[in-house]
Specification:
mainly alpha, 2 domains
Length: 145
Amino acid sequence: MKKLIEISVAIKSVAAMVFAGQIIIYLIIGTFFGLTGMDFILIWQTVAIATITGILHYIAFTESVIKKMRYSIRLIVFSLPLYTIIAAFALIFKWFPSTLYTWILFTVFFLIVFGVLTAAFEIYTKITGKKYNESLEAYNRKSSV
């Protein structure tokens, strides 16, 4: 039961961040296109994508499912299914006209957002990792005295 709760919390945490990010992106794009509201069904679609993203993130980036894998491969394991699922949602729910131009824009936008978020996460990880290492070194110095 404890493991199930840990998994749920990990998925929920990522899903909540993804949901918030999706809403912010929608606000920005919606403002650009003069939208004044969001359909209720679109909110549910956003919740579904956020939840699926949390699950994919758990599978790809924790040691619980995939024990040993290079980070670059994990990015592929995460991003390809995510792109496919989001593209399926876009197609099924007709988020935009299905033309070659809009699919190219969609793909470019996905890659840009994915790249920026991946870079931001890497920077955050390096900063917090450095901070934790410094704290650990300080602790070790104090305990060895």
